[in-house]
């Protein structure tokens, strides 16, 4: 057979075992030292990891880290304003806060654009850029519709997705869409309503 | 003769008698069954081509939607003819992806390992397979399973668990063929062997056969609801745990251990060099077999799986690095002094690149299992790239190398073209690189986009589809890489075909003769302590270490297959039990949530459609407690939300967005229009279209059976639902929902279509947690009360 294993000059000089299987031989080399060291290191790491995260007071859970993130986020975004009011004027005032509008826009794109289009022009949902509205007379109605939903669930309730403050700035963002020019506006639905009335302080 | 063998076999364990001399030498004559090897090798080539082709088709399906609506200046749509790849039900991604994975794993790799095992086992045992009939039953049974898989998966007949999709009748067939035909034949061959000691390749084959049996049986336990449908006996968190214990070890014991066995036989054969280290074989075999089995939970980091299980999965994966590399270095170092042979031997080229990919994958695997790395990589294409480095590189190239080495030997002629094999090697290597590199980039890109915030603290890419559209260039490069890999395999198919055509009219069957197995003569070596002045204990310890290192005890074990099999089973079973039992036994692992109620009959029917269409292939239902994730999808998932999910549908890849909190997020009409054609509402979407769901009637008649099976599994359905009211309730809910859609100016007449059930299910997803805890439609008040009681006693336990 051509695959017999006759040692030749290029065969390493290591000791062979006396095993032979179908012409296959095995060297009696020891397992390399670095293999043991790295294996030992991985075991040592595991022991340390387990001790730190599961059997010491120093570790924390991912849920705790998440709660910290949530608190930090609220303080960072709403820390200076506290709980926002939900009346017409409070909602309209938020339009002037560029940070709030950026946050609200991202929330709108992520959650509302599937039905209302990214620019508010409307798809399955109504056009939010024109002068006609179905369930809305005042900005606070926008907050109410976002909170409770409308049209028998066609517009869902977002109460459990967004905090009160988030729904206030979202309502402000939607109010700000009125009068903008979307790429593909959906035909007007509902009744035309009076313009938002903002009282200057 | 047979009698003397058996007698010899029973004596081997008795050390005291090993010194006996046997004067007479009986020569026994036998020949090898190479016909079975030819059979398995042929189908390996054929199924390989099928698996790669289906892979190429699903790779195309991820890019085609981005071009079908492309319109030129003159108004023509040059790619519109490809629309069939996105909307023909049995060709949708969700149904074909399981076909691709099953074909690659069980048809291509499966038949390859059978070819390797049948060729090498006979030669390593110096005997013919124990039963030619069992060999044939194994072959034809396995091909039948593959054909049944190819028929049922595109029809949407599935259990909805990754790499374990095949329905229960096929599962039973798999168990019968694997253990009844293949396992029995293999173990009996070991029993009638004429070589005293089992070579390391055989150890890996043993580990493969016993462990795959265990994994397959435990993960496939279901209660049937008809011939084509069943429900996993496990639910939610436990089902996820069992599934990934199976899924990860399918990688371990179907794609790793048998291929290591293949490497240990064919590598030294092709290199004509001794294996680097016998003692390394021992250390890495046992550490690999013992440690691998724990690693499954690393597929579920930061999910609703308890943290302790997740930690075990991670740590055992980290510890698995060296045991895996032991095989790699033993393979590569076998080439010491023979590297020059690579220049003109395509077989060795395939082996060396295959082992290199193995070592890369088995370094990357432990790295990806580290929780913080996994936080980024999970649900992204990083996993896909990792898997394909392993499968295309390690499994594919080891198989190709073996085929080129075997084909001339079993067809008893010269390989048709060595040059073509060389071309296959280079084109295949280029194909792998063009596959994995862009997909790594895609995975990391998307992972970073998901977690990116802008300066205001809002998500930088709140629209999910933006993060998908970004990947299109990488997906196109993958199509090119896959095409090259497939082209290489076509060349191999042609090469093997031409080699086969040049076979002799009649195959030569050499008759060999070997003495029957004789009792072992191992003299236990005696060691003296090498230490100078020391305690008695110290001297004993040193002697013990020397005994351990000399490995004579393992040599004895290699001579007794029954003991070897016992210890292998112990290694995999003990580890499994230690991980799985606590998951079921400790109730605090899944704290129950009173407001979580069973699905209504209509929602359950919708869930069956969700599972059948393979939605889980692209959509996860598991929000991790990460700020970027809850910002995008809502409240993170809790273990108690999934207690009625038979099977769980957490998914492993987000080609589309997570759906765990989809319920109530959009109007029902939106869902109808989106399923009809996703590109209506989301132009950049790459999801398949499901217009047929608006036409196909919903089978209300079968809902009753399905509800009843779920009730058997412990889902607390009320008596009214269990005893015949399920279909009626489903119709009532369907009417109400269909009416809602009509009210919103949607299509009429959906109340008896499949889509209504699917939309009902989607609108339910993730909503229970924010509800008060009333008893809902169809729930048995008594059952709910007793559940509450149980919950109270559980709380008291803690």
Features:
heterodimer, A: about 200 residues, mainly alpha, Cytochrome Bc1 Complex, Chain D, domain 2, two-stranded antiparallel sheet, two-stranded antiparallel ribbon, 7 helices, 4 strands, about 5% strand, elongated, disordered N terminus, B: about 800 residues, Cytochrome C Oxidase, Chain A, disordered C terminus
Give a short overview.
The complex is a heterodimer of chains A (201) and B (798). Chain A has 201 residues and is mainly alpha-helical.
Structural overview:
The complex is a heterodimer of chains A (201) and B (798). Chain A has 7 helices and 4 strands; from the N terminus they run E-E-H-H-H-H-H-E-H-H-E. Chain A is mainly alpha-helical. Chain A has a domain at 62-192: Orthogonal Bundle (Cytochrome Bc1 Complex, Chain D, domain 2), CATH 1.10.760.10. A two-stranded antiparallel ribbon of chain A has the order 1-2. A two-stranded antiparallel ribbon of chain A has the order 3-4. In chain A, a hairpin with a 2-residue loop joins strand 1 and strand 2 (24-27). Residues 1-7 of chain A have low confidence and may be disordered. With 798 residues, chain B is mainly α. Chain B folds into 2 domains: 29-501, Up-down Bundle (Cytochrome C Oxidase, Chain A); 601-773, Cytochrome c-like domain (Cytochrome Bc1 Complex, Chain D, domain 2). Chain B is 61% helix and 2% strand. Chain B has 29 helices and 4 strands. In chain B, the strands form 2 sheets. In chain B, strands 1-4 form a two-stranded antiparallel sheet. In chain B, helix 7 packs parallel to helix 21 (561-585) and helix 13 (346-369) runs antiparallel to helix 15. The longest helix of chain B is centred in the middle third of the chain and has 34 residues, at 418-451. Chain B is globular and about 95 Å long. At the A-B interface, strand 1, strand 2, helix 1, helix 2 and helix 4 of A face helix 4, helix 9, helix 10, helix 11 and helix 12 of B.
């Amino acid at each position: 057979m051509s695959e017999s294993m006759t040692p030749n000059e290029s065969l390493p000089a290591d000791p062979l075992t006396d095993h032979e299987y179908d012409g296959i031989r095995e060297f009696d080399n020891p397992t390399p030292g670095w293999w043991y060291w790295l294996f030992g290191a991985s075991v040592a790491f595991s022991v340390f990891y387990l001790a730190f995260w599961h059997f010491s007071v120093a570790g924390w859970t991912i849920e705790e880290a998440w709660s910290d993130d949530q608190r930090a986020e609220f303080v960072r975004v709403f820390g200076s304003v506290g709980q926002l009011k939900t009346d017409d004027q409070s909602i309209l005032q938020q339009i002037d806060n560029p940070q709030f509008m950026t946050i609200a826009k991202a929330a709108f794109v992520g959650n509302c654009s599937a039905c209302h289009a990214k620019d508010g022009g409307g798809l399955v949902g109504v056009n939010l850029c024109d002068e006609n509205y179905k369930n809305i007379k005042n900005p606070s109605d926008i907050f109410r519709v976002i909170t409770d939903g409308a049209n028998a669930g066609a517009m869902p309730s977002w109460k459990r997705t967004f905090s009160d403050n988030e729904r206030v700035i979202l309502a402000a963002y939607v109010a700000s869409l009125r009068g903008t020019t979307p790429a593909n506006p959906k035909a007007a639905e509902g009744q035309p309503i009076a313009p938002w009335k903002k009282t200057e302080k | 003769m047979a009698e003397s063998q058996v007698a010899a076999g029973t004596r081997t364990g008795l050390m005291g008698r090993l010194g006996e001399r046997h004067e007479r030498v009986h020569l026994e004559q036998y020949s090898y069954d190479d016909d079975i090897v030819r059979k398995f090798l042929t189908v390996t080539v054929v199924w390989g081509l099928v698996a790669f082709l289906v892979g190429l088709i699903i790779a195309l399906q991820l890019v085609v939607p981005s071009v079908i609506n492309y319109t030129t200046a003159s108004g023509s749509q040059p790619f519109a003819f490809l629309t069939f790849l996105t909307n023909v039900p049995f060709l949708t991604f969700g149904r074909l992806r399981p076909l691709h994975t099953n074909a690659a794993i069980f048809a291509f790799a499966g038949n390859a390992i059978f070819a390797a095992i049948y060729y090498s086992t006979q030669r390593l045992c110096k005997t013919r397979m124990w039963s030619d009939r069992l060999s044939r039953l194994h072959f034809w049974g396995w091909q039948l399973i593959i054909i049944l898989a190819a028929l049922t998966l595109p029809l949407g007949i599935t259990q909805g668990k990754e790499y374990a999709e095949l329905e229960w009748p096929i599962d039973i067939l798999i168990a019968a063929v694997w253990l009844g035909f293949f396992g029995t034949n293999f173990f009996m061959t070991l029993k009638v062997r004429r070589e005293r000691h089992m070579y390391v390749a055989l150890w890996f084959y043993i580990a493969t056969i016993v462990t795959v049996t265990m994994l397959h049986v435990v993960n496939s336990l279901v209660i049937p609801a008809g011939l084509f449908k069943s429900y996993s006996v496990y639910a939610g968190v436990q089902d996820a745990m069992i599934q990934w214990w199976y899924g990860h070890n399918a990688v371990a014991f179907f794609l790793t251990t048998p291929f290591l066995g293949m490497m240990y036989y064919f590598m030294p054969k092709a290199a004509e060099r001794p294996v680097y280290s016998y003692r390394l074989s021992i250390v890495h075999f046992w550490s690999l077999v013992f440690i691998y089995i724990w690693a499954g939970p690393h597929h579920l980091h930061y999910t609703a799986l308890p943290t302790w299980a997740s930690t075990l999965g991670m740590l055992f994966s980290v510890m698995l690095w060296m045991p895996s590399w032991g095989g790699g270095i033993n393979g590569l170092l076998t080439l010491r002094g023979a590297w020059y042979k690579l220049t003109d031997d395509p077989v060795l080229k395939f082996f060396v690149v295959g082992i290199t990919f193995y070592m890369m994958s088995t370094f990357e695997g432990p790295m990806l299992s580290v929780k913080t790395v996994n936080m980024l990589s999970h649900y992204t294409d990083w996993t896909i790239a990792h898997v394909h480095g392993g499968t295309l590189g390690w499994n594919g190239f080891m198989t190709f190398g073996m085929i080129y080495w075997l084909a001339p030997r079993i067809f008893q002629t010269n390989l048709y073209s060595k040059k073509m094999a060389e071309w296959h090697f280079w084109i295949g290597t280029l194909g792998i690189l063009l596959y994995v590199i862009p997909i790594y980039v895609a995975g990391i890109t998307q992972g970073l986009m998901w977690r990116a915030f802008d300066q205001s603290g809002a998500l930088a890419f709140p629209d999910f589809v933006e993060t998908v559209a970004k990947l299109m260039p990488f997906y196109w490069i993958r199509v090119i890489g896959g095409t090259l890999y497939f082209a290489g395999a076509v060349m191999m198919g042609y090469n093997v075909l031409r080699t086969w055509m040049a076979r002799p009219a009649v195959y030569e069957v050499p008759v060999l003769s070997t003495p029957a197995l004789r009792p072992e003569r191992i003299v236990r070596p005696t060691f003296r302590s090498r230490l100078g002045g020391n305690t008695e204990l110290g001297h004993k310890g040193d002697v013990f270490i020397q005994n351990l290192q000399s490995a004579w005890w393992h040599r004895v074990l290699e001579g007794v297959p029954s003991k070897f099999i016992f210890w292998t089973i112990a290694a995999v079973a003990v580890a499994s039990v230690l991980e799985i039992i606590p998951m079921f036994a400790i109730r605090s692992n899944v704290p129950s949530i009173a407001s979580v109620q069973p699905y209504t009959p209509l929602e359950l029917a919708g869930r069956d459609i969700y599972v059948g269409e393979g939605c889980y292939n692209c959509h996860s239902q598991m929000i991790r407690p990460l700020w970027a994730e809850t910002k995008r999808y809502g409240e993170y998932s809790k273990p108690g939300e999934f207690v009625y999910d038979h099977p769980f549908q957490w998914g492993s890849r987000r080609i589309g967005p997570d759906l765990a909190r989809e319920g109530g997020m959009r109007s029902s009409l939106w869902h109808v229009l989106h399923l009809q054609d996703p590109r209506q509402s989301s132009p950049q979407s790459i999801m398949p279209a499901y217009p047929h769901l608006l036409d196909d009637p919903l089978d209300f008649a079968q809902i009753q059976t399905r509800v009843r099976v779920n009730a058997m599994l412990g889902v607390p359905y009320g008596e009214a639902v269990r005893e015949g009211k399920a279909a009626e309730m489903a119709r009532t809910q369907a009417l109400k929902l269909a009416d809602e859609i009509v009210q919103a100016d949607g299509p009429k007449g959906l109340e008896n279509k499949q889509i209504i059930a699917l939309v009902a299910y989607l609108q339910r997803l993730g909503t229970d947690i924010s509800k008060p805890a009333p008893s809902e439609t169809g729930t048995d008040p008594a059952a709910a009360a007793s559940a509450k009681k149980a919950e109270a006693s559980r709380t008291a336990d803690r």
